[in-house]
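yo

u said u wanted the structure for the complex thing, so here. seqs first:
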Amino acid sequence: MSILIGVIEEGLIYAIMTLGVYITYKILDFPDLSVDGTFPMGAAITAALILKGVPPVLTLFFAFVFGAAAGCITGLIHVKLRVRDLLSGIIMMTALYSVNLRIAGKANLPIFSQETIFGNVWLDENVPKVMLPWLTAIILFIIVLVCKVLLDLYLQTRSGYLLRAVGDNEVLVTSLAKDKGAVKILGLAIANGFAALAGSIYCQEKGFFEISVGTGTMVFGLASVIIGTKILKRFRFVKATTAVIIGSIVYKGCVSVAIAMGMEASDLKLITSILFLLILIASNSRGKRGRVHA
Amino acid sequence: MLELKNIEKYYNTGSVNEMCLFEDFTLSVEAGEFVSVVGSNGSGKTSMLNIICGSISVDRGSILINQEDITHMPEFKRQRRIGRVYQNPAMGTCPAMTILENMALADNKGKSFNLRRGTNRQRIDYYRDQLKTLGLGLEDKLQVKVGVLSGGQRQAIALLMSTMTPIEFLILDEHTAALDPKTADIIMELTEQVVREKRLTTIMVTHNLRFAVEYGSRLLMMHQGRVIIDEVGAAKAGLQINDILDQFNAISIECGN
Amino acid sequence: MKKRSKMIMMATMAALLTTGCGSQKEKPGTTADTAVTEKSADAENQSGGNNEAAYVIGIGQFAEHGSLDNCREGFLAGLAEAGIIKGQNLTVIYENAQADGGTASQIIDNFVAQKADMICAIATPMAQSAYGAAKKNNIPVIFTAVTDPVAAELANADGTPVGEITGTSDKLPVGKQLEMIRTMLPDAKKIGIMYSTSEINSISAIEEYKSIAGDFGFEIVVQGISTVADVPQAADSLLGKVDCISNLTDNTVVSALPVILSKAEKLGIPVFGSEIEQVRIGCLATVGLDYINLGEQTGKMAAKVLKGEMKASEMNFEVISEASFYGNNKVAENLGIDIPEELKASAAGLFDEIAAE
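structre next:
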């Protein structure tokens, strides 16, 4: 049972980042590697701010904002400097390694002794003891739900329509007299904001910031998006945003199962790759994700 | 109201393939004209459209709309006043979004794309009415994703979308070329209807000489970056296909087509 | 499509099952209920052995290199001395994170899921992951090879535990190392130190080096790297500026030590290690820690907690204070350096060969 809760908890933390990857990969059709840098950026900012006495809840907003700023830069590199999508992300991701080190001050920043959104005086006073083992999961569930609902609402606004249009048929966006570059930058900002938010929550849940937590974030996000959208394709009533959240939890579950079955944790990357490849094969066999086609 | 003055455009400057497309090209289009443009391949008709819209830049010369110089205005800004339908039916609509969402997008052209509701509920009836005029039954399919529709249906929607908001002129870039003859006819009739009702200044590039002759108030034939036939008004109305066909064949043979 | 996806799923399951059942080095049983029958080579059979319930310990090691491996061996030896013997009343789940923070976290989750009675965390990032998870699940954590537990917030400033977590610290005897270097190289002026920017222990060690190097007439030149791939170039750069190199217990650097050694050898520049393993594979000398000892000390602490004699929260973390001189005669010969007699006499170990890693 505790395995299940653990899987759900981690799945939910990463689900927030997955929502971001959903925006860039599925909606914008832009493979954005900068999340490998913005995820730990959220963690670094959070650890640094919490140690300075900033209320933990506030750090969530700061993380989002900074992540969005980083996403903007990725977008600017791509749009203004005309660097390819993949490369823009790689440039950002590499740069952010150093930036994050500076933000945190060191490679490893513990915040065990500090209050976080998962452990603080308010919670101690107001939460009944019987709920304690579920507390983290509940808090995470609420946060993810809020993020998901906000994203869904956004995608139904005029701005959201434009975002969807730019990934679907960017020529139309120009025909609508809007700057497609600006729309892409907005999308990247929102997505990386989510990634940084996820990083912030990760740091608060684990109790420390470590510079190496970012590696593999994009792969995780991609795998979750693909699992979510493919597995739940049959169920029309399930919105894409819900599907990717479920995908995140399922993916985390697969990894946990693999390890529990005896695979070494150091084989994790291999397991991830194989899983990912299998999912991609299964998803490619029915219809390709094409660009504009008549 | 649209003027192209002394346009110069070279392709592949500095390389072995350097080609002069336009040299001192000048053209004037009056408000309310419906101009059909025909020409051989490589005559520059599509490039001319791209220059007007801003998809490609010019090396020299200026473009004016109602006396306003837009030569250096970025493409997306120019599109405010321009409606454009492309040859590829896929380029005019968003396949992953529904007909309703596409209409709502088009309806918002020129206004702010802010955080208000994407689809204005009160306008849904208006969209339905607009779709009814197409006569394709699309008004009952508002929730269908555009990607599953046929090329003709998508092009019809694209036509509606490009003319939904007030524009100064309409650019039609061989918009029936990818359609079968019957659908092409339907779309042309629709085009004429829309242009007439909304009194749009229109530039239509087409390969179809019959359309060029039957529709529009002015005919241009282009060849190697120059206008070689320019018939307006009554003279144009009196044209028969054969009149221009000979000329067309002559230039085609010259090009080796 | 349905059939195909089913086939793919079945193929995956088959693959996972076969690899899961495959035997691997040092991989014991995976569930709390299977007792593994292999005996540990250095286990001393104490006959007052506790043969009641089997203990399950999850050993999480952050990276793969000699010093940490020695720690782990020492840990098991220390446990065995106290009567907790792998294969008899102890099941060990060992996982290595290969220096990846995400993997470390996953490993700890697995230990918790396997209902380990105790987690042994080797190196700081692993200890931190363990602390967080164990806090929620009431599993005691014993750490080792954590250079500064206070800075890592794994212990209070006065040394008392912050929870059910304690262990041993491998703080480097910097002063003694510098003294030894001065004895061996009377004319050397600059000492080069390579470190990884992602390892917190290295930063604090360098601070200490810098603060007392002057006392011995040395200047410290540092070179930071971010990944193992940076090592060759960083080594070239550093070796050009210094008279000798001294190592920290930096996991990233130590795992790439052979590269540094081969480059240094070509230039005739001595490399001083921080631990016995490093001297064995080619460092000139060290006044360093015996990680096996450190591990044993840790194992004994762990045994006390497992047997219920003391709680982790009652034991302050311990620092190993015994530092011994180890030298490598072959390396000295290659470099044309004489190891002074007084050091040789007091040496805890002298190697005559350079071992392949």
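Chain A has twelve helices and two strands. Chain A touches chain B through 25 residues (CB under 8 Å).
cya
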